[in-house]
Amino acid sequence: WPIFIFLLFANIKSVASLPIIISVTAMVFTYFIGGVAKAGRQRLILIGSLAITGVWLARLAIEGPMFFYISVFLVGLFSIMITIPVDSNIFEKGEKRDALSASVYRNASSIIGRFILYSVLLLLVNVFQVSFSAAALGVFLLLLLNVSIFKTKELSPPKKMASPS
After folding, report:
1. In the chain, N or C: fewer CB atoms in 10 Å?
2. Alpha carbons 134 and 119: distance in angstroms, whole number
């Protein structure tokens, strides 16, 4: 991102302001999203995924310095709506089994996904336009995956516990 912003605006000030925008946004919004009840996690992931997809698609259509800063702010907000519930689910399951394994699983899946995305972007010519489309598609696929997992959980019968004898 810093290279993209520098190439777009051709100054260091624009690159320096992005981490500030992202940090303040993340701190404030994390405080509010962190208190969401367990039942609201799926809804947060759904709303966040759709919102980020919309912002990425808007980046393809709208050009201008102000929109890029606003979009960084919005993506920061909406990504927290995905990250906190997903991390909460992973670590909740990790408490039942093994917290270290849950953490390794989360980080490995993130690294593998980024490796594939960056490899594809490296091979393509119009990297910035393609990366916006790939990001929108990726977040939308996350939405579909989350909805399908949630629906599968609803449809599966509850597990019966064995009675102690």
Report:
1. C
2. 12
According to the model, what pLDDT value does residue 158 have? Answer: 56
pLDDT in tens, 58-105: 988 888 878 877 887 888 788 888 888 887 877 777 677 776 777 777
Q: Where are the domains of the chain?
A: 2-146
Which residues contact residue 17 at a Cβ distance below 8 angstroms, ignoring those fewer than 6 apart? 69
Calpha distance 102→97 (Å, rounded): 8
**What number of CA atoms fall less than 13 Å from residue 10's CA on the CB side?**
0
Report the b/e string of 35-53 with b at 16+ CB within 10 A: eeeeeebbebbbebbebbb
SS3 annotation, 1-61: CHHHHHHHHCCHHHHHHHHHHHHHHHHHHHHHHCCCCHHHHHHHHHHHHHHHHHHHHHHHH
For the stretch 117-120, contacts whose Cβ atoms lie closer than 8 Å and that sit 24 or more positions apart, written own/partner, are none
At 157, give phi and psi (nearest 5°): -70, 150
